[in-house]
């Protein structure tokens, strides 16, 4: 079973991206175990904090190190990924030469009520994840336009085509992690 650290880029209780991550967890079943990083607990990035790093930061870095794969599920804010995702990437990448991201398999997903389903945000995020030397899955991509009721309160995907697509996407990510270990 692959251990996945999940970074959800929205803090709001009714987040569509949190729902999408929950639906993916359900679809993954016993292929993957999901741990949701507490991005809201991380302080704003401040280099001075490394003198005595907060427990939330050291825990986050340990969670990255323990994971077989990283899943980033981001909303699109003003055509880019959300600030808590950028903050988390910064914390994981430091101090110099002690980045926790190096060579970890990763995948990007996201949903928005907008028609392009976070495509603009994901394009920018991909370049940053490659920069911090994560191994980012290229295909398939997961852009999802969120419609009311698409994911119900039990985190079931109500549209059959979308459910099948998400299942195939999870299978591809699982296989990508397996290949990355070789
Ligand atoms: C948005 N939203 C948005 N949507 C989009 O498709 N493209 C965009 O560029 C933006 N820009 C944007 C900026 C800011 C500051 C906010 C708060 C929102 C709308 C966004 O997709 C919507 O609020 C989602 O519901 C956010 O995701 P969660 O919180 O539901 O996961």
From TrEMBL:
The species this protein was found in: Pseudohoeflea coraliihabitans
Coiled-coil segments on the chain, per record: none
Domain of life according to the entry: Bacteria
N-terminal signal peptide: none
Domain spans labelled NADPH-dependent FMN reductase-like: 3-146
Any Pfam family the entry gives: FMN_red
Protein name: NAD(P)H-dependent oxidoreductase
InterPro entries assigned to the protein according to its UniProt record, in alphabetical order: FMN_Rdtase-like_dom (IPR005025), NAD(P)H-dep_reductase (IPR050712)
